[in-house]
């Protein structure tokens, strides 16, 4: 058993990283795109809230973008960005963006007219009102979107293995094949799943901390359809 | 417009249009895998989602199952199943179904819970049987969301069946994986285009089904 | 300073014990303190080019192992090495050699020639090298070939061999009439190579029922043969599983798969003379028997290729 455990964490030298190193690499490849997606999604969502006519076409475009399979997305980018980490991260950023825009729009829109009117009456300008009233109330919806984007991103990084071993923990899958070491496949699957679960739990924690006024259990909401497009 | 050029070259090569590695054969395989996996996942996810949603129980358990299902990396699971079970449809179907059940399950549950309780209470007051309430009152109202869950599942299956070419599955992913190893960018782009088109066709099919099957009263809401 | 002292391997003995490293580090630290950084950059060393040599490999176990052998042999001569292992198929790695992404790559002379010129039919190893040098990109050159050979092959599972009464004395040509009933398995790139499905058709007239894309002689291929998902497959002749699973390798009288000597492909002028000598010394010692043994250590005994490479270099007196 201890032998098996030793093999389990014995990462082949050709990956040039320890197990922890691969985790770090995986986190970077998975989370940077989510952060980029969030940064882009906030202004886009705000535009969609401000100009209502903009939302349906934006939703249409994002739904179509989300339908493009990850591997297809990766390989088309190879021509522009090579077999690199960037090639993996760009599509993941797009997927995150696509999940986050409707989440933020729905969240911000869920702020009632009365609340907005009250804020205005208190002398809040539009910018202050956005950052201090609308955005905080939208936090649960944004975090729900972030959870889906993050978990899906963590899962998809592994596919990067197919484009020149850019898949961090996913690279273990190929090494398991060529060295006849199935325990490396287990390692890849279990570690990736645990990463996803831990990140998901952290986001739930963040929501609880950011929204002390909310009951711990989220109230029932009509989920945005795109939110269910998780791992691909 | 490099990519367009490559795609054009791929589709105009007549050799890509026949035989076991031809576009019709690979497209057929991909559609078959998708349908099989979707049917299996629906058979599991839909009834459970409908019943739990109807009684409003087990929501927490469902979201746990869904989180766990989503956290499992599909690509890793594919390789793992192939290692454990060898060749055949089973090792491919397991990850595809594991992938597709959570969106169907959770969306169906949420859809049933989001149905306006007033007509349901009215139906119950009229003495309608629970199963009739489920199928004749709740389901029609929940249908748009239920379909969106099935759509997500279908799109994910199309996408993941592509990756399965790495473990020697047929389908459109064959072109992408083979093209990568053969350094045949034409093939890669051709395959990517076909998969994207198939995903968009799936999207369009679901849109059409929703147009036809959702009652106008619900749609207007 | 500590880091740079460690990496300029020329300044320390080949096998620095911890004490030696500590000494060198201390010396470097002291030097850094006293000279105030006016001395030469230690990374430049005394090497011909002073640049880092990038050793790449294809995405199968033996190629990674060979790259480790080359890389460690270079390191022992004080060359600064970084590895880029496990990249992909030749179609990818050759492109990287051309554009300078990698400096050294373990190659197989016959496959490389077939990739460069499908029609060439060399009779000897020397002819192969000459033919390759004629077609090779101007920035690249081959160093000396080793005696170690690892060929592609047409290999049957024992079930199929029994069914058609074929043995290891039979030839690929004997499949002519039955190929239409057989599924052939190989790497995706095998399908479009001359030393692959294309040549099997044009040289031996074999037309298989279908081709199943698997991996480059890896576990997918082995499993598919074992389970009879494919009846014939491309298995590397140094694969330790051939003996274990009683697979039958067919003879190749037309020499379709050519000579397959392990041979270093390098970028011209980017390797010091000492470095080139180190690689040639590896080629001089490496034969098929040694390669088979090393492969078995990696693929059956599950040792890390880098450890196996170091141990072999030591035993061959090349470290």
TrEMBL record, chain A:
Residues 23-207 form the ABC transmembrane type-1 domain. CDD domains: TM_PBP2 (cd06261). InterPro entries: ABC_transp_perm/SBD, MetI-like, MetI-like_sf. The keyword Transmembrane helix applies. SUPFAM superfamilies: MetI-like (SSF161098). It is a multi-pass membrane protein. The chain crosses the membrane at residues 30-51, 58-80, 86-105, 137-164, 184-210. It comes from the Bacteria. Keywords: Membrane, Transmembrane, Transmembrane helix, Transport. Its main location: membrane. It is found in: Cell membrane; Membrane. Belongs to the binding-protein-dependent transport system permease family. This is ABC transporter permease. It comes from Streptomyces djakartensis.
TrEMBL record, chain B:
InterPro entries: ABC_transp_perm/SBD (IPR051204), MetI-like (IPR000515), MetI-like_sf (IPR035906). The keyword rRNA-binding does not apply. The chain crosses the membrane at residues 33-55, 75-105, 153-176, 188-210. It is a multi-pass membrane protein. The keyword Transmembrane helix applies. It is found in: Cell membrane; Membrane. Residues 27-206 form the ABC transmembrane type-1 domain. Its main location: membrane. This is ABC transporter permease.
From TrEMBL, chain C:
InterPro entries: ABC_Gly_betaine_transp_sub-bd. Gene3D superfamilies: Osmoprotection protein (prox), domain 2, Periplasmic binding protein-like II. It comes from the Bacteria. Pfam families: OpuAC. Residues 52-314 form the ABC-type glycine betaine transport system substrate-binding domain. This is Glycine/betaine ABC transporter substrate-binding protein.
């Amino acid at each position: 058993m201890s032998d098996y455990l030793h093999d389990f964490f014995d990462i082949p030298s050709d990956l040039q990283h320890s197990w922890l190193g691969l985790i770090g690499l995986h986190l970077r490849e998975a989370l940077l795109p989510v952060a980029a997606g969030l940064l882009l999604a906030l202004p886009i969502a705000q535009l969609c809230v401000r100009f209502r006519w903009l939302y349906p076409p934006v939703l249409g475009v994002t739904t179509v973008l989300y339908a493009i399979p990850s591997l297809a997305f990766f390989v088309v980018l190879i021509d522009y960005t090579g077999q690199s980490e960037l090639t993996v991260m760009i599509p993941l950023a797009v997927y995150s963006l696509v999940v986050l825009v409707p989440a933020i729009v729905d969240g911000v829109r869920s702020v009632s007219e009365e609340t907005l009117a009250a804020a205005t009456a208190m002398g809040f300008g539009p910018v202050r009102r956005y950052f201090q009233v609308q955005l905080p109330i939208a936090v649960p919806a944004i975090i729900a979107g972030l959870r889906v984007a993050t978990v899906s991103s963590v899962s998809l990084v592994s596919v990067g293995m197919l484009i020149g071993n850019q898949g961090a923990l996913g690279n273990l899958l190929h090494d398991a094949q060529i060295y006849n070491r199935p325990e490396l496949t287990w390692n890849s699957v279990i570690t990736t799943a645990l990463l996803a679960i831990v990140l998901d739990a952290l986001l739930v924690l963040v929501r609880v901390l950011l929204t002390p006024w909310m009951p711990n259990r989220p109230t029932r909401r009509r989920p945005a359809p795109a939110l269910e497009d998780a791992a691909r | 417009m490099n990519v367009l050029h490559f795609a054009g070259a791929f589709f105009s090569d007549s050799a890509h249009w026949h035989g076991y590695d031809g576009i019709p054969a690979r497209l057929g395989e991909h559609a078959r895998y998708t349908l099989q996996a979707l049917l299996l996942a629906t058979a599991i996810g839909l009834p459970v989602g409908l019943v739990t949603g109807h009684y409003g129980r087990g929501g927490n358990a469902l979201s746990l199952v869904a989180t766990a299902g989503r956290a499992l990396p599909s690509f890793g699971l594919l390789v793992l199943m192939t290692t454990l079970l060898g060749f055949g449809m089973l090792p491919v179907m397991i990850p595809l179904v594991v992938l597709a059940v959570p969106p169907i399950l959770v969306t169906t549950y949420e859809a049933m819970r989001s149905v306006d309780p007033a007509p349901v209470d009215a139906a119950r007051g009229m003495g309608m049987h629970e199963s009739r309430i489920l199928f004749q009152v709740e389901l029609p109202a929940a249908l748009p969301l239920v379909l969106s869950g099935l759509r997500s599942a279908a799109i994910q299956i199309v996408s993941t069946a592509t990756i399965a070419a790495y473990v020697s599955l047929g389908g459109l992913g064959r072109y992408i994986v083979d093209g990568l190893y053969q350094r045949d960018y034409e093939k890669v782009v051709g395959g990517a285009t076909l998969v994207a088109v198939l995903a968009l066709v799936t999207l369009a099919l679901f849109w059409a089904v929703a147009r036809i099957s959702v009652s106008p009263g619900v749609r207007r809401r | 300073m500590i880091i740079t002292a460690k990496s300029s391997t020329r300044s320390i003995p080949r096998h620095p014990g911890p004490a030696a490293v500590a000494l060198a580090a201390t010396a470097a630290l002291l030097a850094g303190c006293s000279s105030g950084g006016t001395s030469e950059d230690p990374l430049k060393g005394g090497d011909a080019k002073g640049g880092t040599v990038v050793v790449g490999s294809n995405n199968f176990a033996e190629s990674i192992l060979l790259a480790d052998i080359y890389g460690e042999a270079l390191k022992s001569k004080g060359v600064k090495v970084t590895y880029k292992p496990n990249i992909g198929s030749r179609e990818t790695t050759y492109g990287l050699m051309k554009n300078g992404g990698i400096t050294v790559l373990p190659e197989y002379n016959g496959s490389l020639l077939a990739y460069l010129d499908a029609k060439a039919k060399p009779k000897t190893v020397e002819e192969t090298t000459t033919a390759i040098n004629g077609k090779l990109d101007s920035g690249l050159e081959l160093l000396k070939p080793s005696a170690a050979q690892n060929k592609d092959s047409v290999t049957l599972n024992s079930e199929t061999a029994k069914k058609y009464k074929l043995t290891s004395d039979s030839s690929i040509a004997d499949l002519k009439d039955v190929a239409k009933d057989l599924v052939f398995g190989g790497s995706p790139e095998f399908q479009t190579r001359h030393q692959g499905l294309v040549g099997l058709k044009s040289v031996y007239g074999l037309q298989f029922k279908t081709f199943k894309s698997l991996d480059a002689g890896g576990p997918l291929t082995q499993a598919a043969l074992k389970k009879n998902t494919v009846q014939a497959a491309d298995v590397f002749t140094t694969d330790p599983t051939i003996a274990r699973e009683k697979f039958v390798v067919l003879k190749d009288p037309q020499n379709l798969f050519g000579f397959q000597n392990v041979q270093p492909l390098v970028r011209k002028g980017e390797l010091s003379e000492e470095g080139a000598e180190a690689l040639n010394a590896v080629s001089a010692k490496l034969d098929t028997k040694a390669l088979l043994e090393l492969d078995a250590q990696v693929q059956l005994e599950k040792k890390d290729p880098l450890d196996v490479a170091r141990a072999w270099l030591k035993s061959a007196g090349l470290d």
